[in-house]
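Many introductory courses stop at the sequence. We go one step further.
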Amino acid sequence: MEAAGVPSRGRSEPLILEPIPAETVNRMLNMYTDMLVIRRFEERCNALFLQGKIPSTLHLYIGQEAVAVGVCAALRPDDYVLGTHRPHGHALAKGVTPRAIMAELFAKSTGCCKAKGGSMHIGGMEVGMFPAIAIVGANAPIAAGAALSAKMRGSGQVVACFFGEGGANEGAVHEAMNMAAIWRLPVLFVCENNLYGASTPVTQIVAVENIADRASAYGMPGVIVDGNDVLAVERVTARAVERARRGEGPTLIECKTYRLCGHSRSDACGYRTREEEAEWRAKDPLLRLANYLTLETSTVPMETLEQIENDVTAYIEDAVAFAEESPSPAPEDALLHVFWEGE
């Protein structure tokens, strides 16, 4: 990562960095903390699944934390987010608590969807996170609809819709992007290109070099960003958000990233080489931001990150304890929340 506004210099000339404002440092530490919460949450979920405590399969977000955190860091609390079948990171970054998600994974009545959703359908409308949709690409039309609602209400809200490079080939995604461009809807289409749709390489399903290259066909900007650099993701998203709030329409943001785990718990990743995995582990988004803060800029002492680690670990263990101690739903609860009873 490079400090903004610092010119490159020759090897013989020392690099002198201007002090980073305290507000900026705090913002970066908050993003680091949010990414670490996602990483430790997912690692704990993996262990709990292997112990038989989580009754459904998991699609873990390990390795892609910078995308969710970078995008959500540029949003307002009242903005909306729509996730995918791999939604834990999106939900945590938007503000759904580890307690609420962990209880949902344990199928407890205190879960964010009252044990009716499970891993692939978590959400929390109180923080702007639509319950996730497991059908690939099916969230895009709903994102366009939410953006249309925001535009008609004049609320100034923006919608962020996440999908993968595989989802980018779904008809629903194309239709939603076309509609959003025609009506200049305030929606960000965020493609998390992690190179594989399950086990299929992106090069086998897409003829263009970049998913973002398709944006011009819809009449919207297409932006490519290093999806493992949370600061870069936030900057790109912030510009797209400002554009959307000005009424100038949607943006397609392609985040180049990599999942450091299998597609799901049943995936042994036999289709990837160990060399490729090692290359991407060196680009770990948490490691990159930690090195930037402690080594490259000497802005934050290592002890600060160690304290964050301890706090996050306790935070996740609290969520596990809450889930384990929460009651299971009663049979009659199956009849609740089936129909909307509002006015």
